[in-house]
Amino acid sequence: MDSRRDIAERVIARWKARGIRIDEDPGFMELVALWTAGTIESDEMRRRYAALLRERSLSRSSPLDLHPSGEEPDVDHQSIAIPDDEPDEREGFVQPAQW
User: Fold this and answer.
1) 35, 44, 53, 74: least CB-packed within 10 angstroms?
2) Alpha-helix runs per DSSP H in 23-87
């Protein structure tokens, strides 16, 4: 059985090959680190990432200036939610499109 780290690296490489740099999203990578360490399970990882995406979406659509320094979040969450054309055969790690 592959280690969680191996699975994460393969999924990240697959998305990178498609032009999506999910490894540049610090929120996502923090969750990957927790998952690979065994601190959280995949269901918790998906739940937390979905909450993060909701929070980012709400902050972008808010009429208030939530980024007074002009800084925007590093990753466009819309690019992460691309439908996957391949089933994920790996146990535990689910591709971002399925979150």
Assistant:
1) 74
2) 26-36, 42-61, 77-80
